[in-house]
């Protein structure tokens, strides 16, 4: 059961959008996907069909990490609310603002293993686990990375966002961090999102990423499209933005499948 974290030390770059698109394409292929919202903002949860007030009185990822048992994780499961083909293959672990409280546990010995302890015993229940993360390199990202086999960086072709990917990669590859946290994950891809045609800066940043990361950069790049934002506003998968976006996520999932095979 490959576990993959989607991350960047930068917000608003399309991390959640990427998790949605990959989850939707995997589900279309008949794979059973567990989508874990590990961002206290709960954007993935909202876009998979659950408003904040609907999550107030039920278990979420916050309680699962607190109790760090597979039972607590299972208690948080919700069906994705998209159309049928997608929905029946995607299970959501929702998030709400209370997840912020877990950050105070960062100093507790082995607290960084708590998500891994929830997930590892579920091996076999899902074909893919995708973790959406906040734009920080702190305790919540540590929880995700410790639980993960693979990492995909999501970025816009802009200076600060690309810097965020460099910091993420440096963190994952730092020997002290790997030993201290017990990381085994490795980066399998960098995806470029919100690219605008005819913008010289976007072309330069894209080239710089390819120079630095080579084959790790997964083409094709997702262009900036109002229809993608509209889909997320409506709590629909990005695939509803049309055939161009559908094809991009097909290609990305081909790359993903090769990497995790
Ligand atoms: N290719 C795109 N074109 C237009 N808007 C996009 C695109 N990708 C994402 N967005 C929008 O940009 C915003 C930030 O994306 P999101 O996935 O929430 O980023 P992050 O999770 O990194 O904060 C959201 O409103 C989303 O709908
Ligand atoms: Mg997000």
Features:
binds magnesium ion; 261 residues; Rossmann fold; DNA_Partitioning_ATPase; P-loop_NTPase; AAA_dom; alpha/beta; 13 helices
Integer average pLDDT: 97
Characterize the main sheet. Answer: 8 strands, mixed
CATH topology: Rossmann fold
Provide the list of bound ligands, each named once. Answer: adenosine-5'-diphosphate, magnesium ion
Could you name the CATH homologous superfamily? P-loop containing nucleotide triphosphate hydrolases
**pLDDT < 50 stretches:** none
Helix content: 40-55%
CATH class: Alpha Beta
Q: Order of strands side by side in the largest beta sheet?
A: 3-4-2-5-1-6-7-8
Number of helical regions? 13
Question: Nearest-angstrom radius of gyration?
Answer: 17 Å
- Strand/helix succession: EHEHHHHEHEHEHEHHEHEHH
Number of strands: 8
Quote the beta fraction.
5-15%
Q: Number of folding domains? A: 1
- Kindly, what is the distance between the CA atoms of the first and last residues, rounded to a whole number of angstroms? 10 Å
Tell me the overall shape.
globular
- Summing up helix and strand content along with how strands pair, one would put the structural category as alpha/beta
CATH architect. name: 3-Layer(aba) Sandwich
Map the helices and strands:
Layout: E1 3-7, H1 15-28, E2 33-37, H2 43-47, H3 52-55, H4 61-67, H5 70-76, E3 78-79, H6 84-87, E4 90-93, H7 114-119, E5 128-132, H8 139-147, E6 150-155, H9 159-173, H10 175-181, E7 186-195, H11 200-213, E8 222-223, H12 226-233, H13 243-260
Helix pairs in contact: 1-13, 4-5
The structure holds adenosine-5'-diphosphate and magnesium ion.
